[in-house]
Amino acid sequence: MAVHTPRYSDTIMFLNNDGDSSLRKPHKRLQLVFRAIYFVAFLTKKRISRNTLVLSQLLSNPSYVIDIESINDHEKEPFHGINKEALAKLVREKDINSLLQFGGVRQVVEILESDQKEGIRLHENELKQRKETFGSNIYEKPPAKSFLSFIIEAFKDTTIIILLVCAVLSLGFGIKQHGPKEGWYDGGSIIVAVFLVLAVSSISNFKQSRQFLKLSDESKDIKVEVVRDGRRQEVSIFDIVVGDVVCLKIGDQTPADGLFLDGHSLQVDESSMTGESDHVQINETQNPFLACGTKVMDGYGHMLVTSVGMNNAWGQMMSTILTNDKNEQTPLQHRLNKLTKYIGNVGLLVAFLVLVTLMIRYFTGHTENDIGQKEFIGSKTKADDIMNSLVRIIAAAVTIIVVAIPEGLPLAVTLTLAYSMRRMMLDHAMVRKLSACETMGSATTICTDKTGTLTLNQMQVTEFLLGTDMIMTTSQIAPEVLELLQEAAGLNTTGDVYTPPSGPPEICGGPTEKAILSWSTTTLEVNFNELKREYRILHVAVFNSQKKRSGVLVTKNSTGKVHTHWKGAAEMILAMCSTYYVKGGIVAPIDHEGRKEFDLKIKYMASKSLRCIAFAYKESNAESQILEETGLTLLGLVGLKDPCRPGVKEAVESCRAAGVSIKMITGDNIFTAKSIAFECGILQPGEDLNIAVIEGPTFRNYSKEERMEIVEKIRVMARSSPFDKLLMVECLKQKGHVVAVTGDGTNDAPALKAADIGLSMGIQGTEVAKESSDIVILDDNFNTVVTVLKWGRCVYNNIQKFIQFQLTVNVAALVINFVAAASSGEVPLTAVQLLWVNLIMDTLGALALATERPSSDLMNKKPVGRTETLITGVMWRNLLAQALYQVTVLLILQFKGSAIFHVNKKVKDTLIFNTFVLCQVFNEFNARNLEKKNIFHGILKNRLFVGIVGMTILLQVIMVEFLRRFADTERLNWMQWAACIGISSLSWPIGWIIKCIPVSNK
């Protein structure tokens, strides 16, 4: 190594094999490395910490070059010289030795120009610089399926291939027989029609796949709490940058790789990365490494982000996984596939019979051409004519298969799900799993939370009791008690208060924490900055839904006194206390009578729908490292009010009318739970509360037989744990119910997974809960849960409408073509015409019927449950009546049409085709409502339906009047058009009459 007199253009070079032999000794080289680093730091007036990452490279790479001039030129450029790969490798490999070489976690904080307490500077240029240097927190996704791939998939259909082969052969023989000018019409028309059908279905599928991808991206855009400029704030996970300080709590998912800064009892589940189910303890000394994608199972803390996006293992893994399972099939789609296969087999049989019939009639000389001559006259018939006729017969048979196979059913499901998912997003519900859309329509029971779902989730402290006295101002509280209350409220919390230079304090945390912190700021006059300076937290017991309390062990820096503080459900904390403070600051014992009086106070507050939280403390030994749980002194009780949401009572009544049972499962005590349940309408006056209301421990201690007997009668479960909720879900499912569950916590994940439909809360829900759910309720509102129920029923109902519509067309087309082929040796509907009907039926019909929005009528029906048949008696009644009418009318036109209208065969066939299409248009109106006679109710609200019907009629006019050679039609006069419309419109009065016939909907 050569070190010259300080000149910025000099280069310090570490040589491997050249130079002084003494420099080849490891300890000599290491000394020179340190000298060079200090030399560079002196020249550039930088702290040594900024070059620690460069030092790590020098130690690991024996031929490393430092250009002093380059360093000087980049003196003002942030993060110059930091190796992001070395930083990413640090957490990825959990390399504690490399971390020590960097100087430890604190040193990495300085290297990344962050601050453990303040976070990074909230400056647009700095955020941009960090993204440019270290990358963004996004993953490289596999390329989405192209439009061409959808076209190729559509071409894989065997019947389409056969039809195209027949069309090509017909095209060849036609041109050979009639010349290029006239001979291309038959084959060319089929080719154009096939390509039109393929194009429409491909475009539709392509657009829906894009829609699902968009919804998938939205579901992954979660909010993360970070500290920037000393303020806790929520940002999108995609906006996380290296150097950010992220706040972690139970249920969160780590948004990037990082290092543990501070916190208490932090445990994470790394099974998503390692496959190991055991929870891993995170601490500052032995294991400060937090990998992206892991879940926080206990405790809380702060994390320094060290690598994002594709620079961490999670990003590399996610880039190899499809972001959206476009091949996901719902249970209904599986049932429809079976139905499609069955109908397809029937269509195949009919097509085969038509093929055989037409072949026999052709070769026995019973078919005639356009001028009335026999088409086959033995050996006199040309080979080209025979082949052309055979191709035409095969094409007719294959076209019957194309029409018979209801491939529109899967398309209808896709359209319905895509449309409903998009609309549900506007109604504050994000669907994560397709199957949830339809399953929710079958729900018979909803197990719902209270806080934030039935209530507004806007907690406020409305009452404070010191001992048994109501306190209105701090002047009524003794100074020593006030100081203890300030400690209890300000230190035993996972929330945070930021006091800006001007304006009100900004409070972060959960609803309960925010309410207590707001009360402590305004009423107790807590100075949080001073409180944090004066006290040091020694140990934390994090709140969990089992114990329903949280605790903290703190010491005061000036006196050295150690205090244990507990906060939680009033009856739980009261059971830990043996004394309490009275108004004047005197400590009094809690005797039997005193405990009963406190119980009455708690019950009275609960009866007013107040959540009762108690504070208790104990002075501990200076060397104590544990939180004592007995012999505590009660500091006071606060009552938090969370009013019911407007409209909840009406929503509950709507569910009752729909045959859906509502069960409220809450962690609050039984009195608060009953009060809210009556307010929301879950409990009705006159109900036997001894059966309808139960506590979690009581329910779990029942025998299995006792639980199964009582589970359907329960309306409210208070003081319940997540295990109690899971137990109730399992019991209800065993009784045959389709169960929907709402949850927000990590511990709710088992119940959310076990339920038929898991609904997580978007505001207060943890990422673990959201990941375990099928639908995310974005506004935590029970009204939205009811909206999801309504949409679920709408999805099921829309699909039933389309099934009825399509099967009517299938039955009519198959019967007409088969009877006509068997009797006259020809099919009245040509290949092109049947493909056009197929296009109307599958694509336009699906689009029209799949986009019906939910109506209030859906909530007047009982849930379909698990065993309801897909095609009900009502549907069979409607479709058979319409199909019978269409077959009757069209067969009359087939055999008597020429005589009735005094027209030739070509015009008669056009009349049949036109009437058949218009019958489907009119029948679309009938299909809008399976049971109601008024088929026009709310039709103007669905502009898409009206638009599609109008477009179908317009295209039919163009087909008949202007594309005569393509569609093999003749122009019709206004009298003939009126006749077609009149005949088709009779399907409306027929539908009205048929709906008067009572049929079991089973």
UniProtKB/TrEMBL annotation:
Main location as per UniProt: membrane
Parts of the chain that traverse the membrane: 154-175, 187-206, 342-363, 393-419, 807-825, 831-851, 944-962, 974-994
Every Cation-transporting P-type ATPase N-terminal domain range: 101-175
Keyword Magnesium attached: yes
Record localization: Membrane
Highest taxon above the source species: Eukaryota
Entry keywords, A to Z: ATP-binding, Calcium, Calcium transport, Calmodulin-binding, Ion transport, Magnesium, Membrane, Metal-binding, Nucleotide-binding, Translocase, Transmembrane, Transmembrane helix, Transport
Membrane topology category: Multi-pass membrane protein
EC number annotated for this UniProt entry: 7.2.2.10
Catalyses which reaction(s): Ca(2+)(in) + ATP + H2O = Ca(2+)(out) + ADP + phosphate + H(+)
Entries under SMART domains matching the protein: Cation_ATPase_N
Family designation: Belongs to the cation transport ATPase (P-type) (TC 3.A.3) family. Type IIB subfamily.
Function: Catalyzes the hydrolysis of ATP coupled with the transport of calcium.
Listed name of the protein: Calcium-transporting ATPase
Organism whose genome encodes this protein: Datura stramonium (Jimsonweed)
